[in-house]
Amino acid sequence: MTEAERDQAPPAPDFDVDRLVHEPARLGILTVLSSVRSAEFLFLQSTLGLSKGNLSSHLGKLEQGGLVEITKKFVGKKPQTSAALTPAGLEAIGRYWRQLDHLRGLGGPGA
Amino acid sequence: MTNQMQQSTEDLRRTAAVAADYEVLQGLITASTGVGLVVWAFGSSTWATIVIALGVAVGVGYYQKRFGKAVSRHSALLTIAYALVAVVVCGTAYSIDRALGLPVLVLPLAAGALLAVGYRWGYRHVGVGPAHWVALAVVVLSAFAPLVGLDGLRERVGLFSLGLALVVVGLVDHARLVASMKPVPRD
After folding, report:
1. Fewest 10 Å CB contacts: which of A36, B24, B103, B171?
2. Residue A50 lies in domain
């Protein structure tokens, strides 16, 4: 391939899946959070059907990975936890879904 | 991509759509507003106001307690603007119907147009179903009630049909929301 042909060639497909995002529970958390500005802990449990411990663990990993921001506050005497995507988290989940859609396109008829 | 993986990604996209339109799917609030309008159609605007205010307060508390809270990406400013425009337009239309006694009522036509706009914008992720369109059609058709002699409520026919439509739409939306949420397992 000449240099000119290399410059004109389409970019190589992005198949480097982020394992932090790919885990089903974390994928669910990130996908739901991408639909809202922020969500309470109970909302994430209700939409995803995750137990408290399971959700806490995955949120912790996502926070460590810089994809989610967790806010804790007290409403009266009750603690309330809510989560929101960081800009990096929004980019990561968007990239993941684009990769998935691209893969789906590869598996279609005539591929 | 395997069928199973395709199914679970579709399920996740549906869950995300419900999350995105969570506020509008809180249908018990819509339904109680509808009940308030029906009460008003039968003569009492004071009781109607009480029913609507109570419905909103109890409804918001109910959904927060049952499913938790999420802050929508829908613009709060646009939502408030839509609500204000709806109140002003419907209020003006109702006043016209009261004052002029036209053979075709203005309020149901205005309410139908506002519902159509609301459907397009508020349900843009989950979409609307047959019940929503039937409810809208009933509202619009009620504009012609005086022409066919169904004007026992006179200018309040529009309030009644809109109230009924909101009750139906609200109950359908609540059912959709409940069906989409998952039981929370204990640790």
Report:
1. B103
2. 17-99
